[in-house]
């Protein structure tokens, strides 16, 4: 069996290692450059590879192709593979049959990293032998090759879900759905929504789907479509006989007739959206039969995720917050919504078809100045130029932070929450967040 891996990054190299271990004839092809560290791993494992090209004769003879999530379906080589009827799958689909481990799959437009990390923290604190993979950390396929874990918490993007055929998580979570990555879905929101719901398409009556019952896109889909999984909703406003909800400043989760309660103020993560993430993670912990005391302790000591509403420093009574992971309007909505002081907002980057109107009320209420940090800031200026008193354009992070310091007064907050991708000025959102933190520390 010939396995061709498109993309020589974390998921590609992990898949190549697992494929080789399982007796496939493996070839890795990357249209860009493969990082030196990954080349070394391929060479050590005697896996054939090429970079900066796709040699068709070595690819179109595949029995199965694993495509890295970053490569769009519209890429010429992918189109040719599909025309020939060669299955093009994701890393998760390739690796899943080789493990007996229980998987918990988490998807959503926002909150999936925090929910994934929190769920992992809950299960690990309870002493479960659990791995963490998907969009985070070491590739799932490579961890399956090492065969160390009884269960995995997987953060799954819509791109990874597009490449599944038979994969099903035992427990699936959809944190929320808002327009994102529409450039990859023919600018049709419904295509993107369907893509997220692929997480439940192979689930059976023995599996679970945990979802945000306050989310319009999710509720609409569930009204019109069927899943066989057992549904476990969570909500800030509704209550359930089975599910998780907030009542009188208390989080309650009722699952399999067992009740769990915890005061919301004891939960370490702040903000309404984080109560939702906590409800989702708690629902998993209850399904995995983790003790109440362990759940309580884990929720009260969880540190949060880097680049997601991360408090950096307080300087002259001004709080600097790094929310670089907010790459769409919905994520920035949560960030602005959780601000309690006058805010200087650093925003901008590569726009994925943003509609800034959703932020208008929050900007009027909370934002005193906007610093645009992008190559093209026209849409932001058009949207908010008449709404805030101060609007400044900069083209590097140091200038953004210095300008923010000049504008702020005691008691203000400086919030980096770009609502955009980072590729115009930075390598990725992590690079953007680290540069912000470095600039703040240099003040």
TrEMBL record:
Residue ranges of domain Mur ligase central in the record: 106-284
Mur ligase C-terminal domain: residues covered: 307-420
Keyword terms, alphabetized: ATP-binding, Cell cycle, Cell division, Cell shape, Cell wall biogenesis/degradation, Cytoplasm, Ligase, Nucleotide-binding, Peptidoglycan synthesis
Top-level taxon in the UniProt lineage: Bacteria
Pathway(s) this gene product operates in, as recorded in its UniProt entry: Cell wall biogenesis; peptidoglycan biosynthesis
Annotated binding of ATP, by residue: 108-114
One of the Pfam families matching this protein, by short name: Mur_ligase_C
Reaction equations catalysed: UDP-N-acetyl-alpha-D-muramoyl-L-alanine + D-glutamate + ATP = UDP-N-acetyl-alpha-D-muramoyl-L-alanyl-D-glutamate + ADP + phosphate + H(+)
Localisation per UniProt entry: Cytoplasm
Enzyme type, top EC level: ligase
InterPro entries: Mur-like_cat_sf, Mur_ligase_C, Mur_ligase_C_dom_sf, Mur_ligase_cen, MurD
The family this protein is said to belong to: Belongs to the MurCDEF family.
UniProt xrefs under PANTHER family: UDP-N-ACETYLMURAMOYLALANINE--D-GLUTAMATE LIGASE
Function: Cell wall formation. Catalyzes the addition of glutamate to the nucleotide precursor UDP-N-acetylmuramoyl-L-alanine (UMA).
HAMAP family: MurD
Name by which UniProt lists this protein: UDP-N-acetylmuramoylalanine--D-glutamate ligase
Species the sequence originates in: Flavobacterium pokkalii
Gene (name only): murD
């Amino acid at each position: 069996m010939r396995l061709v891996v498109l993309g020589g990054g974390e998921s590609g190299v992990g898949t190549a290692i697992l494929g080789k271990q399982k007796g496939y004839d493996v070839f890795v092809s990357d249209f860009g450059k493969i990082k030196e560290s990954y080349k070394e791993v391929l060479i050590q494992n005697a896996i054939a590879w090429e970079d900066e090209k796709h040699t068709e004769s070595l690819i179109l003879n595949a029995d199965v192709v694993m495509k890295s999530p970053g490569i769009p379906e519209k890429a010429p080589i992918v189109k040719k593979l599909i025309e020939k009827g060669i299955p093009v799958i994701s890393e998760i689909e390739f690796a899943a049959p080789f493990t007996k481990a229980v998987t918990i799959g988490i998807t959503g437009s926002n909150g999936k990293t925090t929910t994934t990390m929190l769920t992992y923290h809950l299960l690990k604190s309870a002493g479960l032998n659990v791995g963490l993979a998907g969009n985070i950390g070491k590739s799932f396929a490579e961890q399956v090759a090492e065969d160390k874990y009884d269960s995995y918490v997987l953060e799954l993007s819509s791109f990874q879900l597009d490449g599944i055929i038979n994969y099903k998580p035992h427990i699936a979570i959809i944190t929320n759905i808002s327009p994102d990555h529409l450039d990859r879905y023919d600018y049709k929101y419904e295509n993107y929504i369907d893509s997220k719901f692929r997480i439940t398409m192979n689930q059976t009556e023995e599996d679970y789907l945990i979802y945000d019952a306050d989310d319009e896109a999710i509720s609409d889909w569930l009204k019109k479509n069927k899943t066989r999984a057992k549904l476990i909703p969570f909500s800030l406003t509704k209550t359930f006989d089975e599910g998780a909800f907030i009542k009188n400043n208390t989080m309650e989760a009722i699952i399999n007739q067992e009740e769990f309660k915890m005061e919301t103020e004891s939960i370490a993560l702040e903000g309404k959206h984080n109560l939702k993430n906590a409800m989702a993670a708690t629902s998993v912990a209850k399904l995995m039969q983790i003790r109440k005391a362990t759940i309580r302790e884990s929720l009260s000591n969880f540190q949060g995720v880097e680049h997601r509403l991360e408090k950096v420093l307080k300087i002259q009574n001004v709080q600097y917050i790094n929310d670089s992971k907010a790459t769409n309007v919905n994520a920035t909505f949560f960030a602005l919504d959780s601000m309690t002081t006058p805010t200087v907002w650093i925003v901008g980057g590569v726009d994925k078809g943003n509609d800034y109107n959703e932020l208008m009320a929050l900007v009027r209420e909370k934002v005193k100045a906007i610093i645009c940090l992008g190559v093209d800031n026209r849409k932001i200026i058009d949207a908010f130029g008449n709404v805030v008193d101060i609007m400044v354009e900069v083209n590097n992070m140091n200038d953004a932070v210095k300008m923010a310091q000049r504008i702020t007064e005691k008691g203000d907050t400086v919030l980096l929450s770009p609502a955009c991708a980072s590729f115009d000025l930075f390598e990725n959102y992590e690079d953007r967040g680290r540069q912000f933190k470095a600039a703040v520390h240099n003040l």
